[in-house]
Design brief:
Keywords: Carbohydrate metabolism, Cellulose degradation, DNA-binding, Glycosidase, Hydrolase, Polysaccharide degradation, Transcription, Transcription regulation. By secondary structure, the chain is of the alpha/beta class. It is built from 18 helices and 17 strands. It has helices at 24-27, 40-45, 63-77, 88-91, 101-116, 132-136, 144-160, 173-182, 193-217, 234-238, 246-259, 261-269, 274-284, 293-297, 351-363, 390-408, 451-462, 475-478, and strands at residues 10-11, 17-21, 81-85, 120-126, 166-171, 221-227, 231-232, 303-307, 312-316, 332-335, 368-373, 381-383, 386-388, 413-419, 438-441, 446-449, 464-465. The strands form five sheets. An eight-stranded parallel barrel has the order 2-3-4-5-6-8-11-14, surrounded by five helices. It starts with 9 loop residues before the first strand and ends with a helix. Bound molecules: 4-nitrophenyl beta-D-glucopyranoside. Residues 23, 26, 171-172, 175, 227, 307, 373, 419, 426, 435 line the site of 4-nitrophenyl beta-D-glucopyranoside.
Length: 479
């Protein structure tokens, strides 16, 4: 006999914030408008072979001109919060000096439109579009860039601080430093493990100095956003309770010190883990870490923003060379595990989100948690008016169930932003991978909510997930 198991309806707490996220360079376009200066991504896009298809951010989703329509669309979907980023080269084209008021005007218009629609603005101050002039002066390998960031944060706060409750300083310092300065697949395209480690420290310092400047100016809620990846052995991908062998456990702990604790510990505990510090010392020296830096980085934050897409799966393998994105990982193999993957090849492991949220609650108590990005690229099926993306809906539902499990176990999770509101410029991958819950036809700029957006609208309206009969397997799957 078969029993029909219904997935249970899940209610999220009152006040849980349902949002959607984008980033300036990925959606705005209008890169020459109103005095905006060049960023490292404008430059990088013009380097032959750097970005798939030679794509640029010149037009992107033209959100700079279409923001009002995009806000109206969010309102129709019932989205309660919009996480956008502010483009530094719009606000301060050379990266220092006085503000470009015309650039700030855009964010004021956007924020006013959001508030008018009852949508809470969540402003990220740095989502990778460094002014090119600062890169020419050393970029994130230069300590001064962190000070420039704090000045810029203050300029933005002075204009829209009365209207924006939640501020996120820096988005994913690991990606900005490792992929930008270590592996070279992101702007500015440098390839030095030592520079990546120095850049990481300066991005952390920027967060700390920026958070301090925002706090002094009166900001109410301050956060940063980290790309956190639970580090698992291949066995734990399927069985979260699997106990790793000692050598594998050491590999897990080491990688955890690079992807997660290199950022969590300085920000939330005011120190680097010993393993991280050893690796930094061996590869970059410690000359760039000055007395007082860790205290500056360890500002009180009200929220920790978590970008979660996929776990990091590793095991010990003697003789394996270090992964270029993770200096100091000789003898560790990075594998995918056996999970199904998204269109960009990232394994789909929702249970790892529960694990991550509970680990953060246990190891870093006292800070509110918010998922600032979670989502997936899939091949959507466009048929006339409709865009079918059952894979994305299943991905989001699985991760919301995982988030709910963490809430039930006591995690202080305050909200969730889907990545992304719109299909957009996916960095080195160009416009091919589509992460949006809203489809964008880049030839016409037409927006069409995908099935996942309509599903998300219902989730928000209901304050959680309805009960659901799992899909019956198809004949091919049974055969
Ligand atoms: C995040 N990786 O980026 C960013 O915050 C978004 O701007 C981006 O569009 C989104 O995730 C989807 O990729 C990442 O290679 C980019 O490990 C690359 C990696 C991780 C995160």
């Amino acid at each position: 006999a078969t029993t029909t198991v219904r997935e249970r309806a899940l209610k999220f707490p009152d006040g849980f914030v349902w949002g959607a996220a984008t980033a300036a360079f990925q959606v705005e376009g209008a890169t020459g408008a109103d005095g905006r200066g060049p960023s490292i991504w404008d430059t990088f896009c013009r380097r032959p072979g750097a970005v798939a298809g030679g794509a640029t951010g010149d037009t992107a989703c033209d959100h700079y001109h279409r923001y009002a329509g995009d806000v109206a669309l969010m309102a129709e979907l019932g989205i309660e919060a919009y996480r956008f980023s502010v483009s530094w080269p719009r606000v301060q084209p050379p990266g220092s000096g006085p503000a470009n008021q015309a650039g700030l005007d855009f964010y004021q218009r956007l924020v006013d439109e959001l508030l008018e629609a009852g949508i809470a603005p969540y402003a990220t101050l740095y989502h990778w579009d460094l002014p090119q002039a600062l890169e020419d002066a050393g970029g994130w390998t230069a300590r001064d860039t962190a000070h420039r960031f704090a000045d810029y944060a203050r300029l933005v706060y002075d204009r829209i601080g009365d209207r924006v409750h939640t501020w996120l300083t820096v988005n994913e310092p690991w990606v900005a430093a490792s992929l930008g300065y270590g592996v070279g697949v992101h702007a500015p395209g440098r390839t030095s493990a030592a520079e990546a480690l120095v850049a990481s420290h300066h991005l952390l310092l920027a967060h700390g100095l920026g958070a301090r400047a925002l706090r002094e100016a009166g900001a109410r809620e301050i956060a940063l956003t980290l790309n956190l990846a639970p580090v698992l052995t291949p066995a734990q991908v399927h069985d979260p309770a699997a106990v790793p062998a000692e050598a594998d456990a050491e590999a897990v702990a080491r990688v955890d010190c690079l992807i997660n604790r290199q950022f969590l510990d300085p920000v939330l505990r005011g120190e680097y883990p010993a393993t991280t510090l050893d690796i930094i010392e061996r590869i970059a020296g410690l000359g760039h870490i000055r007395d007082g830096d860790l205290a500056a980085i360890n500002q009180r934050v009200d929220l920790l923003g978590i970008n979660y897409y996929t776990p990091c799966v590793v095991r010990a393998r003697p003789g394996e060379p270090a992964n270029p994105a993770f200096p100091g990982t000789e003898g560790i193999e990075f594998t995918g595990g056996q999970a199904p993957t998204t269109a960009v090849g990232w394994p789909i492991v929702p249970t790892a989100l529960t694990r991550l949220l509970l680990r953060l609650s246990r190891d870093y108590p006292g800070v509110g948690l918010i998922v600032t990005e979670n989502g997936a690229a899939f091949e959507d099926e466009v048929t006339g008016e409709h865009v079918h993306d059952a894979d994305r809906t299943a991905f989001l539902e699985g991760h919301l169930r995982a988030a709910h499990a963490a809430l039930e176990a006591g995690a202080d999770l305050r909200g969730y932003h889907v990545w992304s509101l719109l299909d957009n410029f996916e960095w080195a991958e160009g416009y091919r991978p589509r992460f949006g819950i809203v489809h964008v036809d880049f030839a016409t700029q037409r927006r069409r909510p995908k099935d996942s957006a309509l599903w998300y609208r219902d989730v928000i309206a209901r304050g959680g997930l309805g009960s659901r009969r799992p899909r019956r397997p198809t004949l091919e799957e049974v055969a």
